[in-house]
């Protein structure tokens, strides 16, 4: 038995891979797959399918991904990702995923950081449409008994002895009962949105607690300082809404109002890729220009997009803007700001997606793999599907152990709203688009002043994020240091963070960064 | 602006439900019921928090379906300003209660298992059918349509629109061989029981044009077949 925690793209991909090999798994998620963050993905998924007559190749996809990630991602892993991408897309088509097509081939669109059309899409609801296909496929194996769903269950404990994982404890949110499950564990629990509750484009379900649990058990984290700000988001009730990069891929233009005059700042500064530079660059430029005294806002102008584009490629986006913003993007520009969107960092994994704890795997957004210092749009759905597949291929199926409920941690992996807010304030203060030592140090001070610091794993994890940002004394990708504006050879490697002091929570423990 | 939420509460399925009122103030005319619930919860001690399901906050996941002033809606879709000074929140009624505003919607997923909603063979995607497939893939499995459907109950053979929408994806893309099985399922577990009142279309928070999908599925699975006979 293998236990998969998370039923988004990575979890489903892992479960289906196992089932196809005739292996059993439990698929655990706080809510059913239909509610996972993966259904929110909008713009598309990358693969060098070369259906647009541009002679695209996996080699170019590889190069763009490495360059976009500022050469921090593991080359071998990215090679595997980009070479397997076309096969993954063909598999999705076999499952009937309703992508936009041209004859019997998927249409591809332009996306940031890539010169060729490489992003397959389903209007602006690509994640939902792919999820539907994978959910239907998984259902087949649920009925045959290979996949057992636990769809309202939260991971509350990992059984780790020495440096090996033997199983997990989950909590049924409906009946309030705990269940102990033996076997290897694949975490597919999504990004760290919960650390920035209300301020990200993602879901409130991904509170990051599964990553915190693993970290508390001694798993190493990597690259936690790399947080992707998406350049075009806007605050709506309770969260930030994303305006997909596809809006720019289809011709949308960013401008800043400087003394009342439009400045198409991306096109002016970067004539080649313009509005479609990688996200780190667009967000930073947008932030910097918005800080100028004469600037009264940054806007996304989509009014020149053809009617056909609105109808067939971005209809969902238009409806959303009208509903949540009371703005019609076909007629008026949308005021946008960079917002937290994706976590390049997460649990550190090897090429088989195993964490530093044996038999504990991680895939999808909770793992730090493929995206280096900056993720290219369209690569994360791909990375989730591919990573889930690899984890499933490599996880051992023969782990036998007696799991007892005491493996579940107490309350010291959570924070109640009040302290959670204090933690969030510290993180927001220290981890902005542009950050420097004084701010990060002040944030650390704020964090260490929170009641229970030194005993609570969630606070340690937050500390690891800040310490990673302090440690990387250079600017690279999404990590922009005001005091170290240049890239440095010395830091051409991942930052790792771990909790030292053994894995009893009664010991003195500290966060160590390397 | 001030509103009073009247919320139907219960600790668990066994306990008798009761109404609890919460006074709430807001300023943003676009604020949703979901945001209000989140804010109210942040002010309550953990054991007293109102239990409800929530994920995307953007009407894209179906988690937060509940009765709002008697109608099944998504809390993150529903703006406070569109309601009066008192807003009543209750759990959906057709599904077994779990706690407060949470119900167990397992029946929705069980229907899809029972009807074998998946491809045994390779699907046949094409540009021609892409729009139908896209629309049919958008179902949130939220259960709002089932709540208003006069013919659906969790133990009926008729599975309602929440099953017919996913089925219409299969109808559009299945190969010749597999179509037979899917047409039969559609006919037996949906077509035969649907009264075509279209209450489902008017309520669907995803704005799925269930009528159009039904017309297309009927054309393929029901009329197409009869013509051949
Ligand atoms: C608005 C938006 C648009 C995006 N657009 C794109 C795009 O166009 N292209 C692209 O490639 N990427 C896009 N992304 C990113 C991409 O969607 C995600 O990175 C990807 O879907 C993550 O998949 P996942 O399987 O890792 O996790 P998720 O889909 O987030 O799933 C996480 C799962 O883990 C479960 N879970 C979490 N914690 C626990 C716990 N403690 N116990 C039990 N279960 C738990 C959840 O219930 C859920 O099932 C977008 C993201 C957002 C927010
Ligand atoms: S048309 Fe009427 S009977 Fe048929 S599914 Fe919709 S609500 Fe139910
Ligand atoms: S058809 Fe609409 S109302 Fe019914 S479950 Fe699907 S999304 Fe919800
Ligand atoms: S929270 Fe996802 S639909 Fe309301």
Detailed description of the structure:
The complex is a heterodimer of chains A (514) and B (229). By secondary structure, chain A is of the alpha+beta class. Chain A has 14 helices and 27 strands. The model of chain A has no long low-confidence stretch (mean pLDDT 95). Chain B has two domains: 2-103, Ubiquitin-like (UB roll) (Roll); 106-228, Alpha-helical ferredoxin (Fumarate Reductase Iron-sulfur Protein, Chain B, domain 2, Orthogonal Bundle), CATH 1.10.1060.10. The N and C termini of chain B lie far apart (64 Å). In chain B, helix 3 runs antiparallel to helix 5 (161-173) and helix 5 runs antiparallel to helix 6 (176-189). The interface between A and B is large, with 52 and 57 residues. The complex binds flavin-adenine dinucleotide, iron/sulfur cluster (SF4) (2 copies) and FE2/S2 (inorganic) cluster.
Short description:
The complex is a heterodimer of chains A (514) and B (229). With 514 residues, chain A is of the alpha+beta class.
Structural class of chain A: alpha+beta
Q: Bound small molecules, which ones?
A: flavin-adenine dinucleotide, iron/sulfur cluster, FE2/S2 (inorganic) cluster
Spatial arrangement of strands, main beta sheet of chain A:
8-2-1-12-22
Structural class of chain B: alpha+beta
Q: Supply the CATH architecture of the largest domain in chain B.
A: Orthogonal Bundle
β-strand amount of chain B? 5-15%
Strand elements of chain A, count: 27
Element layout with pairings:
The complex is a heterodimer of chains A (514) and B (229).
Chain A: E1 2-5, H1 9-20, E2 25-28, E3 45-46, H2 58-68, H3 75-94, E4 101-102, E5 105-106, E6 108-109, E7 119-120, H4 126-143, E8 147-150, E9 153-161, E10 164-172, E11 178-182, E12 184-187, H5 209-216, E13 221-222, E14 227-236, E15 239-242, H6 246-249, E16 253-258, E17 261-263, H7 265-269, H8 279-290, E18 295-301, H9 307-312, H10 315-325, E19 334-335, E20 337-343, E21 346-348, E22 360-362, E23 367-368, H11 379-394, H12 417-430, E24 434-435, H13 437-448, H14 457-471, E25 480-481, E26 496-500, E27 510-513
Parallel strand pairs in A: 1-2, 1-12, 2-8, 12-22, 21-23, 24-25
Antiparallel strand pairs in A: 3-7, 4-5, 6-7, 9-10, 10-11, 13-21, 13-26, 14-15, 14-20, 16-17, 16-18, 18-19, 26-27
Chain B: E1 2-9, E2 18-25, H1 33-42, E3 65-68, E4 71-74, E5 86-90, E6 97-99, E7 102-103, H2 106-114, H3 130-136, H4 144-148, H5 161-173, H6 176-189, H7 199-203, H8 210-228
The structure holds flavin-adenine dinucleotide (FAD), iron/sulfur cluster (2 copies) and FE2/S2 (inorganic) cluster.
Flavin-adenine dinucleotide (FAD) binds at residues 5-11, 28-31, 36-38, 40-45, 126-127, 154-155, 188-190, 201-202, 205-206, 209-210, 242, 342, 364-365, 377-381, 384 of chain A.
């Amino acid at each position: 038995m293998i236990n998969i925690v998370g039923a988004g793209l990575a979890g489903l991909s892992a479960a289906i891979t196992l089932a196809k090999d005739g292996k059993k798994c439990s698929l655990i998620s706080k809510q059913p797959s239909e509610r996972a963050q993966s259904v929110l993905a909008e713009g598309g998924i990358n693969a060098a399918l070369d259906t647009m007559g541009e002679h695209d190749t996996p080699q170019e996809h590889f190069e763009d991904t490495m360059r976009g990630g500022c050469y921090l991602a593991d080359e071998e892993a990215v090679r595997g990702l980009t070479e397997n991408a076309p096969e993954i897309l063909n598999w999705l088509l076999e499952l009937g995923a309703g992508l936009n097509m041209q004859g019997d081939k998927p249409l591809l669109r332009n996306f940031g950081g890539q010169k060729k059309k490489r992003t397959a899409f389903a209007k602006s609801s690509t994640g939902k449409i792919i999820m539907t296909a994978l959910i239907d496929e998984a259902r087949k194996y649920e009925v045959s008994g290979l996949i057992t769903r636990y769809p309202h269950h939260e991971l509350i404990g990992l059984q780790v002895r020495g440096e090996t994982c033997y199983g997990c404890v989950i909590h049924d949110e409906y009946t309030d009962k705990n269940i102990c499950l033996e076997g290897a564990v694949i975490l597919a629990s999504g990004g760290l949105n919960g650390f920035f509750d209300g301020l990200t484009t993602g879901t409130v379900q991904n509170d990051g607690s599964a990553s915190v649990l693993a970290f508390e058990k001694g798993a190493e984290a990597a690259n936690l300082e790399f947080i992707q700000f998406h350049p075009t988001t806007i605050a709506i009730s309770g969260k930030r809404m994303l305006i997909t990069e596809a809006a720019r891929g289809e011709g949308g233009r960013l401008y800043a109002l400087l003394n009342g005059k439009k400045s198409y700042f991306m096109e002016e500064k970067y004539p080649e890729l313009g509005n479609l530079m990688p996200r780190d660059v667009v967000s930073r430029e947008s932030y910097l220009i918005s800080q100028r005294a004469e600037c009264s806002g940054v806007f996304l102008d989509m009014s020149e997009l053809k009617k056909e584009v609105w109808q067939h490629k971005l209809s969902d986006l238009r409806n959303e803007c009208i509903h949540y913003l009371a703005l019609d993007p076909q007629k008026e520009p949308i005021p946008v700001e960079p917002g937290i969107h994706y976590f390049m960092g997460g649990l550190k994994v090897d090429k088989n997606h195993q964490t530093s704890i044996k038999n504990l795997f991680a895939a999808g957004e909770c793992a730090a793999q493929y995206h280096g210092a900056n993720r290219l749009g369209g690569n994360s759905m791909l990375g989730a599907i591919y990573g889930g597949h690899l984890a499933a291929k490599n996880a051992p199926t023969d782990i036998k152990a007696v799991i007892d409920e005491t493996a579940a941690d107490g309350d010291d992996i959570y924070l109640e709203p009040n302290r959670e807010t204090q933690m969030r304030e510290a993180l927001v203060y220290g981890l902005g688009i542009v950050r420097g030592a004084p701010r990060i140090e002040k944030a650390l001070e704020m964090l260490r002043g929170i009641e229970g610091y030194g005993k609570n794993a969630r606070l340690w994890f937050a500390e690891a994020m800040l310490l990673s940002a302090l440690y990387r004394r250079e600017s690279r990708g999404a990590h922009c240091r005001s005091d170290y504006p240049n890239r440095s050879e010395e830091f051409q490697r991942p930052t790792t963070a771990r909790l030292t002091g053994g894995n009893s929570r009664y010991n003195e423990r500290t966060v160590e960064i390397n | 602006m001030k509103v009073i939420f009247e919320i139907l509460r219960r600790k668990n399925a066994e306990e008798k439900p009761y109404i609890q009122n919460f006074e709430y103030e807001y300023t943003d005319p676009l604020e949703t019921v979901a945001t209000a619930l989140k804010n109210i919860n942040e002010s309550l001690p953990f054991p007293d928090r109102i239990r409800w399901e929530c994920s995307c906050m953007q009407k894209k996941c179906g988690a937060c379906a509940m009765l709002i002033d008697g109608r099944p809606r998504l809390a993150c879709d529903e703006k406070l300003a569109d309601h009066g000074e008192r807003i009543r929140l209750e759990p959906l009624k057709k599904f077994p209660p779990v706690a407060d505003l949470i119900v167990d919607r397992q029946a929705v997923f069980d229907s899809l298992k029972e009807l074998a909603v998946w491809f045994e063979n390779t699907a046949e995607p094409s540009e021609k059918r892409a729009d139908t497939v896209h629309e049919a893939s958008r179902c949130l499995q939220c259960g709002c349509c089932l709540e208003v459907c006069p013919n659906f109950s969790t133990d009926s053979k008729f599975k309602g629109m929440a099953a017919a929408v996913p089925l219409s994806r299969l109808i559009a893309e299945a190969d010749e061989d597999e179509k037979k099985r899917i047409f039969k399922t559609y006919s037996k577990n949906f077509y035969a029981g649907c009264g075509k009142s279209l209450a489902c279309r008017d309520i669907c928070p995803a704005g799925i044009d269930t009528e159009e999908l039904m017309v297309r599925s009927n054309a393929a699975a029901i009329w197409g077949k009869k013509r051949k006979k």
